[in-house]
Write a structure and sequence with these properties.
Radius of gyration: 15 Å
CATH class of one domain: Alpha Beta
Shape: globular
CATH superfamily of one domain: START domain
Largest sheet: 8 strands, antiparallel
Distance between the termini: 13 Å
Oligomer: single chain
Number of strands: 8
Strand content: 35-45%
Helix content: 10-25%
Order of helices and strands: EEHHEEEEEEHH
């Protein structure tokens, strides 16, 4: 059963709030956000694929990955983890990189807080994304962030429901 995604944009505050309920345990959803082999299965919207190049899920650690398109084109990204509260939340700064993991400062960064809350239906996932300015938020949205992230979360739901 597919659940609705709430995707709220606040241009004035330069924030995006995302919420989705998954019909499975917090542990399962947490693992799919914190383990490279599981992230690779859903992070990129199809027909794209995600390939983790390096991951250290710990405060101060990094995740470097490639998004690989159907024609084998590659775009690179990274995340620096900050505070991690096991099975509850973690925050990170997301950024674009080159193929060597060097940050591309010409493109916006996103500060994100991801929360995992056990509810009667399973797990409520909340994602708060904050941008440095409304212009940077609009730039990321213009690159297809809403469609891509919505598709990826729906892929995660199918994966968790074993309906892939």
């Amino acid at each position: 059963m597919e659940t609705k995604i709430i995707f709220t944009k606040d241009e004035k505050a330069a924030t995006i709030y995302i919420m989705k309920v998954f019909h499975c345990s917090v542990d399962e959803v947490w693992n799919h956000f914190t383990q490279a082999d599981l992230l690779n299965k859903w992070w990129a919207p199809k027909p794209w694929k995600c390939e983790t190049l390096k991951m250290e899920f710990e405060p101060g650690g990094f995740w470097y990955y490639a998004m690989i398109g159907p024609e084998n084109e590659k775009h690179f990204g990274g995340a620096k983890y900050h505070e991690i509260n096991y099975h509850r939340s973690f925050d990170f700064t997301d950024f674009f990189t080159d193929e060597n993991g060097n940050m591309n400062t010409a493109l916006p960064t996103t500060k994100s807080l991801i929360g995992f809350t056990g509810v009667a239906q399973g797990t409520k996932l909340t994602i708060n994304n904050h941008f440095n300015s409304p212009a940077e938020m609009l730039q990321i949205l213009g690159m297809g962030a809403e469609q891509g992230f919505t598709a990826a979360l729906n892929q995660l739901e199918k994966l968790l429901n074993k309906k892939d």
